[in-house]
Records
---
Amino acid sequence: MSETALPPCPQCGSAYAYEDGGQLVCPECSHEWSPNEASAESDSIEVRDAVGNLLADGDSVTVVKDLKVKGASNALKVGTRIKGVRLIDGADGHNIDCKIDGFGAMRLKSEFVKKA
């Protein structure tokens, strides 16, 4: 495979994957996978926001409802913008992994956000 044709890491989305023998390796998260797995795993997660828009890794979203956060003294307010979300196949419907200023890393349900 040529360097430009390599797919991004299915684990973390890094574009710096490289080929090592018959495997592909991500230098950022050390995930290893076969090229055949990459095509099967990509685009396998379809996540829609509160209004039905299709979300993708790296999108920016806005919170549509005040959300209580366990362990935090205040709630995540309506209109909070979250940049660079990562879509996951999470338990309990928490299918968005993100970092929020003032709250840190957390997982959200897509039904409480809309594409920005």
Note: The chain has two domains: 7-40, 60-115.
---
Amino acid sequence: MSAESLEIAKNLYQSGKAAFESGQYRQAVENLEKAIALVNRNSRTGGEVQIWLVTAYEAAGRTEDAIALCEELKRHPFSETSKQARRLVYILKAPKLQRPSEWMTQIPDLGALSDNESKIRLAANSTKSNQPKKPTEREYVDLSQVNTKDNRFIWVALITISLILGSLVWLSF
């Protein structure tokens, strides 16, 4: 492997990671597959790229490809890569749990709105936010409704603390 192809592979690997982290999973898969073609699959770098490819496959909805690649990586020469592959296979093969619908937030489909309707809504929201707000009036509290009695708990607590401190001072001599 030449130094030039190794440099290209590292650039593709970084591009694939960046695409994955920004949510562009298909682009990540493409870049990582190209990077694997340029590096030795049994090297440490090859193992890292393949582990990232497993996660990109899963994110892109290609779970079967991810599991198949993990099964291959379980026999990788570097122990860290094979250990990660075993953990990932366990996670990928785990049964999917059903989430209650009340745990989920529904995001409205904005594609159904026409362009004109969305512009009207945006304009209405911006004019509402630009209007000056009215100063709030002070709310007066009726003092006859406020509890102003002494709280006995405070006196009990102060006496208890002073007794404890006094006994500690007396016992220290």
Note: Residues 152-172 form the longest helix (21 residues).
---
Amino acid sequence: MPVQWTISNPHRLVIAVARDELRLEDVENYLDGVAVADALAYRKIFDTTHAKMMLSDADVMALGARIRAYLKMGRLGPLAIVAVTERAYQQARLFETLAEGNRPIRIFRELHLAREWLDGFGEAA
């Protein structure tokens, strides 16, 4: 399973870690799981440190459209994306642009900086 995630309801936090080859269906499965768990409004970290990005620009555009649809359904929590490779960083930037909405998104090269930023929102985020 390329994306594994943990949802902490008491902390209103979702931590997702991508491994191996990351494809569109993997991210869609993750998003479906978060939506079904009613955790879209939670703070989120999506860590791609150990993933090989197999997403095309069209895939990233599809994810952006999905996020915009979620925004119409309700509030989304802050998102910290950890992207250490140049490809992952560029795709995260494209996603950030395409998934624009009323929620903070930031891209980091290091996990601890992402967590620090996200913790600044507190559990009420």
Note: DSSP finds four helices and five strands in the chain.
---
Amino acid sequence: MEFNPTKAIVHNEGCDLHYWYQGQGPLITFIPGGNGHGRQFNNIMAALSDKFTCVTFDRRQMSASQVKVNKKLSPPQQARDIRAVIKAMGFDKSILFGSSSGGIFAFTFAHDFPEMVDRLIAHEAPTITLLPDASEVFEWFLHLMEVYEIQGLEKVTIEFAHKLIGYGDEGIPQTVKPEPENPKNFWDNEFPVLLGYAPNFWRIKQNKTSIGVMRGVRCKDAFFARATEEQAKVLDCAKMLVPGHHQGFEAETKEFLPYFLSMLDTLERKKEEVETGKL
């Protein structure tokens, strides 16, 4: 379907959250990661909007959703922002798709507002504290903070990009770049929090939320891809190897889409088992 969304704004906790939506049917909320902008989901929203109402947004302090004074990231506040968008859409619950740190915010939403989750897909959420080599990765993250503070944004971007495997593969389309202020906000205010944050996965599992995790085949053994394996162990949830790199849903939408729909079907069956008392 042609992409022709309706744009709107909802005010929440001092921020005008800019969101846009298209389609009809059950709601899917697409949650951006560290790059902050929702435009990366435009392709997949267009492809799904014949069956679903699709909505995304620019996260707080990113792209169009600016505040007067930037503050350190609060994942629970990000979850409340997601809630504000869902309610502004007129829905009581939503399917969630969160990529990268957007997956972490989706998990946090599931922890804080389980009754509002229809199904949840987390695509390479970098919960490094679950990794077998968590100490090593944590100290590398601290190193990256030092690089940013001493050498600046350009240097840390180059070093961090070495872990973003697959973006340079031959024939793969480029992804939409964020506004220039987004990376600065990420390194100033988000990365220092994300390097040690993870929601209470045991509580999420206890709530029996229908969850699936995805890792991109092009990412190989990048830390954010490996984190999905550990999430699946703790949550005892569905996991799937999918086409593409860390933003494969954007760069290889056509290839990614059948896997996305298959995961939704799997999670629908799990949801029904929970509702009927079979699980």
Note: The longest strand covers residues 15-23.
